[in-house]
Amino acid sequence: MKEPINTSSTPQIHPSVWLGRQAQTPTGLSTGYPELDAILPQHGWPKDGITEIISAPGRGEVSLLLPTMQRLQAISTLVWLSPPWVPHGPYLAHNGIELSRLLYVQAQQPEQQWAAEETLKESAIGALFYWPNKPLSFTAYRRLQILCAEHHKACFIFMQKAASNTPCSLKVEIQNRGMNALRLKILKSRGQWQQPELDLPCHNVSSFRYA
Amino acid sequence: MWLYVYMPHLYLQSLPMANEQPMALIHPRHNHILDMNTAAKQSGIKHDMSLSTASLLNPQCQWISLHTETQKTFHENAALTAGKLASWVSLDEEDGLYLEIASMKKLMGDGKTIAQNLRIHLPHLTLFIASAPNAKAAKLLARSEIEQHLSDRTLLLFMKGLRCDRLSFPPSLELALKKLGIRTLGELFKFSAQDVAYRIDRELAKELQEITGERTFLPTPFKPSPRFYYDIPLQHEAEHQSQLRFPIKNILKHFSQFLQESNLTSQQLQVDCFDREHGFYSLPLRLARHTHMFEPWFDHALKKLERFHPTTPIIRLVSHTHELQPHKGETPSLLAESTSNINIDPLLNTLSTRLGADHLGFLSTHPHHLPEQQTLFTLAPERHTPLQPLALPVSVLVHPPKPVRLEHYHLLQGPHRIHSQWWEGEPVVRDYYVAQHQQEALHWIFTTHQQKWYLHGYLS
After folding, report:
1. Residue B338 above 60 pLDDT?
2. pTM of the entire structure?
3. Which candidate, B136, B90, B131, B86, places its Cα nearest to that of B111?
4. Chain B 382-441, CB below 8 Å of chain A: which residues?
5. Residue B366, exposed/middle/buried by CB under 10 A (0-12, 13-18, 19+)?
6. Is A205 close to B412, i.e. CB distance below 8 A?
């Protein structure tokens, strides 16, 4: 007599093999925008993976991440690696960013990649915000992705043009920036096929003193 | 027996600069002349003159602002040199030294001999040296530029004959003595201490007693600031950097032990690797943050060694530093914030090893009307950033501003005028606008009087 097949126990799968259902668990970092959280499969930015932000400078790519930065700074230090411009301290401080917990690192390739990897290994760091001065190779992406997963770190990579086939967890494009809103498109997200678009409110420029 | 060394031009003469060029030392805040060299003196610059007057007299003169820490270093260096000739050296004011010379008279000689030796050891300095049985008597003579070496027997006799207007008394005291008709020290000595204190000055009465020896004055001995020096000859010549790992580990263990025993921390250690021909390779170790722990130093040294390629075999290692700071221990508190245990020093040290300490830092704000001056970078940030009143909408700046063409923009808001102050050199007048670029992005651009347009930031 044939023994019945036991379907209740799942076969042992190596922990590094990624399963589609893992993405369904709502363990992301809240973006600070409920409408954006609602369309992301992890209900926020990936906590232990790469988020790629595709945007020309001036489309609100920093403002988009300010709520997340504020939340992460409460428990850790953040690193800005090689931004191609100079951060404006008073603006960040006014928007609730604690400057003593924001480390600014300036490096060129190949030191850039090394610095990114060292940063992700450090337990005191909450997230890495990385502006590579050249498009990253697939290997470099993969190394960062593995380090993010191993050390449970969020990594935000800022690119001006979207490269195809990058092993990131989430790829978001900021399509345009108006006076009071910015338009986003989700190009890739683990755990869903859709590529939704939405408008997010951002700082009202007219509220500044010289309006 | 005491010897006093007065170094009136200590600061200027200790600077590594050519003496032929006119130079003057100015007060950092009040901008008046504190000291000048001969070349500056010849152009008419005088002590206590205002900087504006002095610059009119000699526009080519080099103005050096007095830095208190540098002055202290120069003074301590002179004291260290003098310490080779006396067992007790004390610092006095900013430019004087007391040397106790009686206890080492047999070894070092009398006042005259020590004065000669001091001139040999400090050839770059103008010195006025006097010795006397009492420290204050020696000081009065040297500061009055009277080079005398007096004994117990000759002290009072010589002092009594000194004219008061030749001595380095303050002008107010000199005037008070003139009013009383006192011309020499001998006439002043005739008064009792109480009389001098009542009629002239209480401090003068005390000083006179110390000069004559009625009251004992002992200056506080100078304790040199701690320095680390460790010299190890290698048993075998090191031809490859990997052979230096063990000796450097040994050095760093000693260094860490020295720091912990002295309750100090350090950020910098210089390791000089000498080869057989007495040439040396410098291996500077510099951490981003001060520490007394062995591990960060060793990690840093290993990373430095990876890039260290000596071409000749190393036979000796000499490590030294004088950049040491007292260790500030942290008091644990039950009410401490949950975030207080965030320690990013290991990361800072790792990154600075390869990138250099000047490539990383924390932001801090600085009150200034020009946007490019409002953000500073520092490795030691303030604990909490004070909330800034928002003046500008821009989150990131382009530095230096990039020329742009107005045709690519649609102006949305502005102008907002920012201009520099008249005392800041070249005047800056900018009219800023928030403008939408063709790429659907918001830029912060400005125009100048010349009708040129520049991109200065993004509303990122």
Report:
1. no
2. 0.65
3. B131
4. 382-399, 412-416, 432, 434, 437, 439-441
5. exposed
6. yes
